[in-house]
Amino acid sequence: MLTIGELARRAGVTTSALRYYEEVGLLPPPVRVSGQRRYPESAARVVGTILLYSDAGFTLAEQKALMAPRSGASGEWERTARRKLAELDERIARAQAAREAITHGLRCPHEDIEQCPHFRAGVTARLAGRRLPESHRQLHGRQPDEAAACAE
């Protein structure tokens, strides 16, 4: 059995984080010995799972769905995982478009970036309500990959 301090040190988290995980239902309630929390050794793996899911971008609420048994008709864990994949795909697309825009800016021969037709088109697209990945696809007809050469 581990005290809350021992579990916190082993997992690399604070004791308040462990109490919060317990409060929200991610960490099973420990037994009490003389009023102190005592966790089984297996609690370290539960905390490790919480940390891994957090690293993958899942909120604590989403983690509850992922930690529920996968059997049953609900399939909530699969819906949660698929939603997160879609979110990650969108973030990756934004990051790729941003990378290409910045790379283009570094390579652009125009002394004033306002004179660059790619930059002007991007500003126009943004003012029309389109985000960077969408405006990039419209400008180049493809997903961002390599910085486009500035033709003008």
From TrEMBL:
The keyword DNA-binding applies. InterPro entries: DNA-bd_dom_put_sf, MerR-type_HTH_dom, MerR_fam, Tscrpt_reg_MerR_DNA-bd. It comes from the Bacteria. The keyword Transmembrane does not apply. Keywords: DNA-binding, Transcription, Transcription regulation. GO terms for molecular function: DNA binding; DNA-binding transcription factor activity. Residues 1-69 form the HTH merR-type domain. This is MerR family DNA-binding transcriptional regulator. It comes from Streptomyces hoynatensis.
